[in-house]
């Protein structure tokens, strides 16, 4: 989705993003949860995707298990980073489709904890108001 109406961002164009203010999160549809999220083994343990015993297995073995389970979409062998899976509409698999909130918020990965301090445009977020999200979803085929 690349449309831009009023004060909402186009996730693919960081120049349309808003300077981050915590108050934006209250009525945002979680557009940042459509960005690819790279995680480390420690994140996967905190998230409950693997347990501490599995964490000592070779990353390649973990990657195979997590790919098969649908938890990740990709594994970067060089950096030992896993990319969390996303739905067909690009939403993170941990984003509640109705409420547009993270279902593992207290256990979320470090990348998400640091957003928007890190990411494609530090200090800015892809803000998209909730009301606009409802309108966009109603208009979808």
Helix content: 10-25%
Strand-and-helix sequence, N→C? EEHHEEHEH
How many distinct beta strands? 5
Kindly report the average pLDDT value. 88
Low-confidence stretches: 1-5, 135-141
Gross geometry: elongated
Largest sheet: 3 strands, antiparallel
Overall tally of structural domains: 2
What gyration radius follows from the Cα positions, in whole Å?
16 Å
Class inferred from helices and paired strands: alpha+beta
Task: Summarize the entry for a quick read.
This protein is α+β, with helices and mostly antiparallel strands.
Could you please describe the fold and organization of this structure?
There is one protein chain. With 141 residues, this protein is an alpha+beta fold. The protein folds into two domains: 89 residues, no CATH class; 49 residues, Arc Repressor Mutant, subunit A (Orthogonal Bundle), CATH 1.10.10. The chain is built from four helices and five strands. The chain is elongated.
Key structural traits:
single chain, 141 residues, alpha+beta, Arc Repressor Mutant, subunit A, 2 domains, three-stranded antiparallel beta sheet, two-stranded antiparallel sheet, 4 helices, 5 strands, disordered N terminus
Summarize the topology.
Blueprint: E1 18-19, E2 38-39, H1 41-47, H2 59-69, E3 72-76, E4 81-84, H3 110-114, E5 124-125, H4 130-139
Antiparallel strand pairs: 1-5, 2-4, 3-4
């Amino acid at each position: 989705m690349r449309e831009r109406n009023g004060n909402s961002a186009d996730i693919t164009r960081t120049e349309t993003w808003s300077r981050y203010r915590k108050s934006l999160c209250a009525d945002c549809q979680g557009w940042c949860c459509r960005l690819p999220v790279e995680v480390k083994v420690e994140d996967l343990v905190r998230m409950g995707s693997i347990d501490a015993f599995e964490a000592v297995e070779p990353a390649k073995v973990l990657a195979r298990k997590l790919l098969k389970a649908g938890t990740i979409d990709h594994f970067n062998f060089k950096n030992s980073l896993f990319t969390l899976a996303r739905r067909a509409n690009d939403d993170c698999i941990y984003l509640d489709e109705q409420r547009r909130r993270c279902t593992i918020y207290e256990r979320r990965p470090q990348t998400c904890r640091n957003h928007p301090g890190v990411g494609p445009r530090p200090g800015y977020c892809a803000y998209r108001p909730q009301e606009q999200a409802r309108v966009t979803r109603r208009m979808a085929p």
